[in-house]
Amino acid sequence: MDRITYDQISKSVHTIDDIESISLEFGQPRGVIGTILNQKIVEHVKKNFHNMQKNAEKNLTLWMNGMSIIEIAEIYKFPPTLVISNLLRQMGYSKKYTINHLEELPDRRLASEISEALDSDAFFSPWAHHMQAHRGQMGEEIIAEWLDEKDITYYTEEDLRDKNLSKTPDFLLEVPLEVEGKKVRWIESKAVFGSQQEHEHYIKRQFSEYERLYGSGLIVYWYGYLDDISLEKHVIKDYKLEEEIENNTSRKIIELLNFVPGLS
Asked: Any idea which architecture 127-257 has in CATH?
């Protein structure tokens, strides 16, 4: 994706309700728009989290005066789960225990609002994190199926951990695979859009170490990536792994591309 299109999408999408229309406008799968929105929200939270923290007492006062958790979240344009954490800390409650035992809360208004806020949060709530992990698993399963179709022997991240290796790509190939003229030894599946920031983060945290240990690799950003990102000696691809894909695998790719937590 060119940077102009990416910037236009990022500026246009604000909530989950925008995803369908923007998907149609830009001719991109829903999942691509959803992951760009997710990245936008995470970046907003990082930049503005301190503002909510310093207003913790004020937020509690607003809630006690009748403003709902979701309404307070709207003030900061934050996922409601973060406001729940902020309020519970002020009240002296454990967040983890409380959200898992809402039936024990003596304040039924608080319990009801927490439940409603968690249900509405498609980015930071426990169910949203579960769905994001599921999305990542979907991508890894597709690559495993693709490799199996080619009769390529590989070790999964779990296999490598069983060998007590500390740096574990999703797939380490027993024999290098030629992709676009390069011999790749490892494959990393990323169920995100490959923005500049995401890419640089993964280079520091993972890719540079994988290169040092195993050589060249294949990075799959399932939801696309900026045209101008690169990584010397390595191959970057999106959902178009190759021209011809088995029908069953193609169906799974389409499912992944349209998978958006909170959007039916």
From this structure: 3-Layer(aba) Sandwich (3.40)
